[in-house]
């Protein structure tokens, strides 16, 4: 087995020492020259099937424990965060329509969104302010974060399930299916 070259070793060291995931440009700033993308590909292959894996989430790279071994490192059972239906709906709207304003969220949901709903999602690190719209009142827009991608195991927002995936998983309400059928978009089950 040939030893890894200096760029691969440097990229590996930077990623191990980093407290947060890093993009290619940030890694390049630490290691200087060399083909960082090729080094990442080499490292990903080297760590495949091992106790830790090199993963990319939202165009940022980091090492994480292999999913099938994560249970070995948990000392305390994490209490899953229970989100209200309003929070789940709001998170889905932000994920699928970002950047989106509070008024747009309310228009899609059909009800007013409590301030606390957005606060809970920001505290969880799943959404963030994403600037202001250039319209009267300059409302704040929201978008998902890299933490959202990491928590839900997504590489990018393109990995979010489509309507066919949701239907196949049985996650669409019968009301949604009936509404879609009424609009001529598909067959509602009776």
From TrEMBL:
PANTHER family: SEGREGATION AND CONDENSATION PROTEIN B (PTHR34298). InterPro entries: ScpB_csome_segregation, WH-like_DNA-bd_sf, WH_DNA-bd_sf. The keyword Cell cycle applies. It comes from the Bacteria. It comes from Sphingomonas corticis. Gene3D superfamilies: Winged helix-like DNA-binding domain superfamily/Winged helix DNA-binding domain. This is SMC-Scp complex subunit ScpB. Keywords: Cell cycle, Cell division, Chromosome partition, Cytoplasm.
